Amino acid sequence: MIKVLKPGLQTTVQDRGRIGYYEIGMPPSGAMDKYAYTVANMLVGNALDAAVLEITYLGPVLEFGKRMKISLTGGEIPPKINGQPVPMWTTLEVREGDQLSFDFVKGGARVYLAVEGGIAVPLVMGSRSTYTLIGIGGFEGRALAEGDVIHTADMIRKPVAAGASVDASLIPTYGKTHEIRVVVGLCSYRLTEESKETFLATEWTVTPEANRTGYRHRGERLQFVEREQPFGAGSNPSNVTDLGYPIGSIQVPDGVEPIVLLHDAVTGGGYATIATVISTDLDRMAQVKTNEKVRFVSVTMAEALDARKDVQTKLGRVAEMIESGS
Amino acid sequence: MKEVTQMQTRYEYGGDEFIFVQLSEAMSLEANFKGIAITRKLKEASLEGVHDICPSNASYMVRFDPDVIPPEEMMARLQQIELEMEGLDDITITSRLVDVPVYFNDPWTHEALMRFRDRHQAPDSTDLEYSAKINGYDSSEAFIEAITSAPFLVSMIGFVPGLPWCFQMVPREKQIEVPKYVRPRTFTPERAFGFGGAFSVIYPVQGAGGYQLYGIAPAPIYQKDQTLFDFQESIVFPKQGDIFRYRSIGEEEYQAIREQVEDGSFVYHKKEIQFTPGEVLADLEGFAERALRRLYHD
């Protein structure tokens, strides 16, 4: 049992996501930073699809009702137990009555708290992830609130001893400027050649509209190729006949403020999509904060797949390290 | 199928997990039927590593696991399915005809749209009056008659869970087209019936929105608790390929249906229908007439 003394800015239950319902307009939700999420579960010996808490910007204050292993991964929001700093990316043991709190965020934006056995909430359409827009999944379909009491499940795969940790080389670091790799495509034919270059050359500033549904960026104005709008597409040059939006796809309504759609986003609509963030860098996007800088870097499919392999290799090494008890 | 062969298909990657296939830049029944045919074939193939198959208006999208099926292979499969499709005439589509009651000019959406006049093209008229005028109708009544006299194809589901984009099954010259609000509203009532571009929608949940608002549906299209008969298998009612007939109702029937929804007894009136895209496109008016007869009299 874990008691929520203070909820933090937005603390939600998340897992790997609700996959397979995009067709009915249901986004996957799920942990925004899958690498950090997966390592958090590994460190407490959970099944890799166990539910964790995703903590955003401002951490909660939680009280543990029994002895258990926990781990904290992701951005640098320094954690404390009973007021004493504790390391992230490490298997910790807490006792009954221990309180977990956090300092102000130093780097990144989201921390993952895994507890031994995972968070116990009902499966909704195959996932425990919270989707707040329609209020399903997670803890009563919403972010945690003061006074909530959450329980742990029994999704333990193999117990891990306290003190296990992840080598520094396997821990991502976050500055204030971010390179996010994208595959240019989808409806990028709608942008002028010049604007395609501008899109990749601009250092974009993340606006306050940056959350689980998407990140909006301020910078240059982009121009669309002039045309007579096709039937059904709507009148603005940035409009297309309503279509599906991939997760990570980038649209530029009216040519201003590119929006990267993320895990809780709308699944389709009438804006031209011009590029897609590669799956690996969705993790990095999750650790970007308002007012930080983002540059979109164009990569090929082969490079995107290499990046994907790299992450899998790293996760394999983390698993080995924990297994060998180092 | 002259129009189909003239459509230019565009295959694009959406990062390393998505492929987006644009069948046509313009909306048309042909493009939508083609998307239905391809995505239904793809579903039947039940390929390992395919997570989502999402048909949309004039395009479709697939989410796949590139560790299971390499992107080039996935794309080749999709291209192959398109190549193997000879025409739309030999495809039979089975779908549902559904009676969808709508209370036009209702007090709730009226209140909502009046609140956001400063975001609208025509602050001095209602959305119905404005839309009737720019589409060449003498009155709101004549405009409502045009919406309710011919059925709509549910051409895409998305945006939020269950929202149906519906495209009227009438010749191009009779298609209604309206702009979206100049700036989106911050509020739209749940179950509001709206129109934007060439599409009508029903908003599943309360929220922001930019479509012109004409009325409200008494019956839900999304039900989280799944207590109604039509929601036993899914929290959303509409399916791509459904054919909706919007029927204009008054306040009395609206309230009666609301009571049925509340007490759990409401069931959509619907019939199964089979058609080929070829026969529909050859005679849209004849098809509409037959569809309505089947829905209400067979």
UniProtKB/TrEMBL annotation, chain A:
InterPro entries associated with the record: CT_A_B (IPR003778), Cyclophilin-like_dom_sf (IPR029000), PxpC (IPR052708)
Keyword Nucleotide-binding assigned: yes
One GO molecular-function entry: hydrolase activity
SMART domains the UniProt entry points to: AHS2
Ranges where the Carboxyltransferase domain occurs: 23-314
Pfam families found in the cross-reference section: CT_A_B
Keywords: ATP-binding, Hydrolase, Nucleotide-binding, Transferase
PANTHER family: 5-OXOPROLINASE SUBUNIT C (PTHR43309:SF3)
Protein name per the record: Biotin-dependent carboxyltransferase
Gene source species: Brevibacillus panacihumi
